[in-house]
Design a protein that fits this description.
mainly beta, 10 strands, 12% helix, globular
Length: 155
């Protein structure tokens, strides 16, 4: 059995698009390990407010981050329809709680618009840019900025 492999232009980028609240975001597909349904998390004492807790992922403890709360939006009220995007960020694996995964996008690097100057410093730090696709505005997130490797980088 053979599969046709679509070759990407050197300047093309593949992204996973997802919804958080009424907004759409995307991340580089290379940082995504898997996408799974919502599993209730066990809360951890003294954890940041955006951390839902931890789950067991095939014998490993996986921290679950409420991406809505981490981005300064209203914390998610989880339902069975929520999704966990398991992503590699720096040397750690984290679960990102999102409302739904909507698309896999292939975009040209030059189609990424800069984050508007009127955005807050925090928004500009987390957002690598904005995409306008089919009348949708999708914010490209930089996971490494959202989850700094060390506490000193977060300060």
């Amino acid at each position: 059995m053979s599969y046709a492999v679509k070759s990407l232009n050197e300047r093309d980028r593949e992204l996973i698009a997802f919804r958080v609240g009424d907004q759409e975001f995307c991340v580089n597909v290379m940082s995504v390990r898997e996408i799974r349904g919502w599993t209730p998390a066990t809360a951890m004492p003294h954890s940041p407010s955006y951390m839902k807790g931890v789950i067991n992922l095939r014998g490993a403890v996986l921290p679950i981050i409420d991406l809505s709360a981490r981005l300064g939006m209203k914390p998610a009220v989880t339902t069975p329809r929520h999704v966990i995007i398991v992503a590699q960020v720096h040397s750690k694996v984290v679960g990102l709680l999102v409302d739904a995964v909507s698309d896999i996008l292939t975009i040209a690097e030059d189609s990424i618009q800069p984050t508007p100057e009127i955005a807050s410093e925090l928004q500009r730090q987390f957002a690598r840019g904005v995409l306008s696709i089919d009348k949708r505005m999708i914010c490209l997130l930089e996971l490494e900025a959202i989850f700094p490797e060390t506490e000193s980088e977060a300060a």
